[in-house]
Amino acid sequence: MWREFFGPKARIVGIDLNPRAKQWEEDGFEIYIGSQSDPSFWKKFLSEVGPIDVFLDDGGHTYVQQIITSECVLDSISDGGMLVVEDTHTSYLEGFGAQTHSFVKYAKIWIDRINSRFCEFNTDQSGRKVWSMEIFDSIIAFKINKDSSELKSEEICSVEEAQYDGDFRAEDNVIVENKSEEITPIMQGAFSVEGLPNENNVVSEGDVMITKNQLVGLVENWLEQKPEAKDELLDLISKSCKT
Fold first, then answer.
1. How far, in Å, CA of 160 to CA of 162, rounded?
2. All structural domains of the chain with their residue ranges
3. Quick one: CATH architecture of 35-149?
4. What is the largest CA-CA distance in the chain?
5. Which of 132, 138, 187, 207 is placed for a possible disulfide with 89 were both Cys, Cβ 3.0 to 4.6 Å?
6. What is the predicted pLDDT for the residue at 190?
7. Are 141 and 84 in contact, with CB atoms under 8 Å apart?
8. Does the structure show a pLDDT above 80 at 229?
């Protein structure tokens, strides 16, 4: 698949823990055997392979594996290249590491770093290579451009002073106050996490997640069929709330 995608001249290198993966060298691939959790492996691997244009992490998907790989590999990605990490939905599942150090939380730190380029923050951007990020379902891509990522943004005013009638931004506060009944539900909806997995609501294998409205619908449907079970249901809900 990758040979067909990148073309016959592409240098394709694979990494695996299973020594049997070496068999794919017969098909023109370079195969290294090692652990993506091992910084020493990465140091040796990168010294032998050199700069990388596109790196795809589709390994064990634990947070340690994903983060160690990213931290070790990012500096070796060529300008214009990218690091792509797959199956990032594991950040919301049990069995892949401590939720406090999930890969998605790591990616959010990079979002803060990228936005820290704004001139008023006065942050040191030297040595940074990640210019931008793209986020998809279960995939996070880091795009590399060293020169651009070291730039600090500057404020630009395109309005001629003679035509400038003052700062009207404060005028909007009046509208916000007068339209609070319309604005409040929109803001609440924008920050709603209902139905979303998070560190306090980790999805285990076999779990089924439903929204509050779906739950209410199921309860109402059940009570229509078994109205005599209302007291039993209320007692069960009361006990669940106490636990």
1. 5
2. 35-149, 210-243
3. 3-Layer(aba) Sandwich (3.40)
4. 77
5. 138
6. 85
7. yes
8. no
